[in-house]
Amino acid sequence: MRTMLSLTLALTASTLGMAAAQTKTITVSVFPDLDSVVKAALPGFKKLYPNINVKINSLAYADHHTALTTALSTGKGAGDVVAVDFGYIAKFAEGNGLVDLSKAPYNAGQYRPQFVAYTFPQATAPDGRMIAMPTDIGPGSMFYRSDMLKRAGVRATDLNRSWESYIAAGRKVVAANPGSFLIPDAGEAAQIILRTGLGAGEGLYFDRSGKVLVGPDNPRYVRAFTVAKQIRDAKLDARAGAAFSPDWTTAFQKGNLATEFSGAWLVGHMQNWLAKDYSGKWAAQNLPGNTYASWGGSFYAIPQQSQNKAEAWALIKYLTTNPAQQVLAFKTTGAFPALRAAAGDPIFNEGVPYLGGQKARIQWRQAALKIQPLDVNRLDPVAEQIVNDALNTVLDGSKDIRTALTEAQLLITRRAR
Amino acid sequence: MLARSTSARRGGWSGFQRRYAPYIFISPFFILFLVFGLFPILFNAYLSFQQWQPGTGLGAMKFVGLRNYTDNLTDPTFWQSLKNTAVLAVLSGLPQHLIAIPVAFAVAGVLRRMQHLVTAVYFLPYITSIVAISVIFFTLFSWQYGVINAALSALHHLPLIGGLFPADRINWLGEKAYVQPAIALVVIWRYTGWNMLLYLSGLQAIPKELYEAAAVDGATGWQSFRFITLPLLRPIMFVAVTLSLIGGLQLFEEPFILTNGTGGAGQAGLTTIMYMYRTYTSYSDAGVAAAMSWLLFVVIGALTLLNNRLFGRSGLAGRD
């Protein structure tokens, strides 16, 4: 009797011990809508990895990144898997807070050919460490109001042939639709031009060796500022500032915009709240002047402080390299998959109901492949701010392009040390 | 003496209690102050001599001496932000007091019956959430869809006086010339009620006998305001102006929200605190941001001293 009891005890203990050794709980820190993607992925993931429990910790977009900054600076409190938005990649690439995924045992480099080309350079620090895996992308697109164009007798191809024809055709559209604007803000055109025609080894603001590219002698910058200024001077823009500013939102809701450049994800916002009443009137076309650019994108990373790196990597691999999961993510939030195989799913050949059934996803898929990779620099956020300020002083007429760019060059060079 | 010796003799729990109870009772404040007050200040001072990107871990700090300070002092944007802050502080600070003093005088005198109602109405903006405020003022200031521009354009179409009003819509938050007045307007609207309340309490502390005596001597209303109210309000003016000065130099919420954090057209709305915030969050340069906060502290300290010289004496000092 006594041996029986001790045997049972021993057995219980060993099963418990085994279970404890096998089942691990990992935490995923994400922001909305990415949290719904992870949630949707869990049943499929559980089937493959029954011994990994996943806890989702979702915070609002800005809070999530602030909390992650704090956790990485203090070395405590980060999840095992953390979502990072494109805008924060350069910031977190500094220091050694995030695991280098290009090294063993992760060897993420092997997946490179499977992903849209520009995503891997985005996730790579200047010193070559790869700190995150891409999950979704925002291929750029020009959205336009087909009814407004028709009223002006302008075709969509007139708008996107070149920047000059965009402005010329835009004047007609605005003239034919009183009270309307061609674009929310003239600065947007400059941002797109800055992102195209880069030489090898060039980033947006710095080249690979850290030299400042901003300046009055760089044709890319002069052209970008000139085109934006032409749009402003022709009174074609609503001067709404950045996307999601109150004026931007109001202009959309009132239906006063003829075109907007943004990521494919804008359709989700338009149909849900931004331009609900204009379903079927908006359509998509490539960006003007044969240019391709991306708007945002999300990544997953593993903090150095995580105690469950193997399990975290298993989840990241499932979320990013599993085609079925990437398609499921697209169905959940409409975010375009970074995995090329996923974009081959039949759903991408279907029409987009909001865009009047236009098969825009095929166009976006092709655009994604043409987007140039940009080298990131740790001072990109500084340079971005300074260039945007310079652009605004040009647009509001307080400085000419040469002066503004010369000053911007000086300000950035001061910081680049 | 006797009590102490007995308690000492008693020792144990009772003695411990007698001795330390007061400290334990006041400890919550000191503990909170140490953790959330003193420690951040000292850490910030330490940080201002380091080069550090938050997110790289505390171990990555590097001592750089005074470089963060010299960097700031040679940064044109820092000086521009200081200039913006000074302009905004004056533009928003002065009217607050110029409005609040007469209003408080009127409320204390003529409007005494409705004092509580009027005070509450004027104080309301102060306790309104900044998010609600931003929604209201965006609706007012918006270039294409704003209420102010709609009103101006309606006035422009009036016969006779229409010519006094602009034909084009004014881009309040998008044009350099209008950014600072627009921000100042919101600040004035928000804090005038607070200052009025301060002055009201100051007015109520002035003895009635003085006014009665002046009235007996045949003083007019203006004379009693000029020679009794104003001098005796001086101590409260000192408090109110000091608070406005500190608040004005630390201006952040209103310009940040109204310009979407960008500083607005021509960076005219970029205050020093906003620039510090930007240096920390988007430039990830914690050391430079910390140094900037100390430089601003020096400016605030100097101006407060100056204010102390101007208003610091009590109302009747130097008159006897």
Automatic annotation (TrEMBL), chain A:
<protein>
    <submittedName>
        <fullName>Extracellular solute-binding protein</fullName>
    </submittedName>
</protein>
<dbReference type="InterPro" id="IPR050490">
    <property type="entry name" value="Bact_solute-bd_prot1"/>
</dbReference>
<feature type="signal peptide">
    <location>
        <begin position="1"/>
        <end position="19"/>
    </location>
</feature>
<keyword id="KW-0732">Signal</keyword>
<dbReference type="InterPro" id="IPR006059">
    <property type="entry name" value="SBP"/>
</dbReference>
<dbReference type="Pfam" id="PF01547">
    <property type="entry name" value="SBP_bac_1"/>
</dbReference>
Automatic annotation (TrEMBL), chain B:
<dbReference type="GO" id="GO:0005886">
    <property type="term" value="C:plasma membrane"/>
</dbReference>
<keyword id="KW-0813">Transport</keyword>
<feature type="transmembrane region" description="Helical">
    <location>
        <begin position="232"/>
        <end position="252"/>
    </location>
</feature>
<keyword id="KW-0812">Transmembrane</keyword>
<dbReference type="InterPro" id="IPR000515">
    <property type="entry name" value="MetI-like"/>
</dbReference>
<feature type="transmembrane region" description="Helical">
    <location>
        <begin position="86"/>
        <end position="111"/>
    </location>
</feature>
<feature type="transmembrane region" description="Helical">
    <location>
        <begin position="123"/>
        <end position="143"/>
    </location>
</feature>
<dbReference type="InterPro" id="IPR051393">
    <property type="entry name" value="ABC_transporter_permease"/>
</dbReference>
<comment type="similarity">
    <text>Belongs to the binding-protein-dependent transport system permease family.</text>
</comment>
<feature type="transmembrane region" description="Helical">
    <location>
        <begin position="286"/>
        <end position="306"/>
    </location>
</feature>
<dbReference type="InterPro" id="IPR035906">
    <property type="entry name" value="MetI-like_sf"/>
</dbReference>
<feature type="domain" description="ABC transmembrane type-1">
    <location>
        <begin position="82"/>
        <end position="307"/>
    </location>
</feature>
<feature type="transmembrane region" description="Helical">
    <location>
        <begin position="178"/>
        <end position="200"/>
    </location>
</feature>
<keyword id="KW-1133">Transmembrane helix</keyword>
<feature type="transmembrane region" description="Helical">
    <location>
        <begin position="20"/>
        <end position="43"/>
    </location>
</feature>
<keyword id="KW-0472">Membrane</keyword>
<protein>
    <submittedName>
        <fullName>Binding-protein-dependent transport system inner membrane protein</fullName>
    </submittedName>
</protein>
<dbReference type="Pfam" id="PF00528">
    <property type="entry name" value="BPD_transp_1"/>
</dbReference>
<keyword id="KW-1003">Cell membrane</keyword>
<dbReference type="GO" id="GO:0055085">
    <property type="term" value="P:transmembrane transport"/>
</dbReference>
